[in-house]
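Database export, one record per block. Field names are fixed; values are copied verbatim from the stored entry.
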Amino acid sequence: MKIGLALGGGAAYGFAHIGVLKVLEKYGIKPDFISGTSVGSLIGGIYASGVSIQQLEEAARDFNWFDIVSFTLPKGGLLSIEKLDNFIYKHSKVKKIQDTKIKFAVTATNLLDAKEEIFFEGDMGPIIRASCSLPGIFAPTVYNHKIYVDGGILKNVPTEVLKKMGADFVIAVDLLANSKIDILKNNNIFNIVWASWTLTIQEHTKITQYKDADIVIKPTIYNINPFDVFKRDEIITAGYNITEDMINNIVEEMKKKMPLSERIKNIINKISEINN
């Protein structure tokens, strides 16, 4: 049975993906395919390249906005994130999407044709940056003579592509479903744009309903600034706790798909070992 993992967008809330991955690894659940949007493509791409979960955490601790962004004239966005490419190449074990150890796909929004574009190959740096280019805050990314913005604009949790890649069981992680900030206390331009974008995404997600997802993980993240990378440990813990709480449900859903799978037996044995 092939497992697919869809990692959604959510700025600094993306650290929760690390907590999710830690629990899945703990119980022997290793994805065969990963799809990512926005920060989900950043975390997912580095992990898919073949790094350990410990190395992924080290990369998270190395992330600092001051090293990533630079101010621009407000033409395409307030901030440029071109230096994100350097961060990606520093921590990823590969430079091309097609060379990742775990099969990986990135989604971004193509502004020229107003459609979602899925990348199965190409340069990790600019493609992941394209998927992370939140309109109004970050300048769009120009790649191969096209203009891209954040993949979450059209689909914040890229589940459908995993079925096309060959996944039998799809786990989705939605960072925005149970996240909320006090906009009265945090009413700067970044959080206003963020709150507006989040509202749109949440309403759109209610309609699409995570198509093809077998299980959806929704970390609870309240009153943490979506750009506060210094709350990374708290956010990682949020992803860890919700996945730990859901692990039995995840395994039960997997058993329904393939009750005689050796993989499921191994996972159940792993749970028994941990519980004992």
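Remark 1: The first helix runs from residue 15 to 26.
Remark 2: The chain has a mean pLDDT of 91.
End of record.
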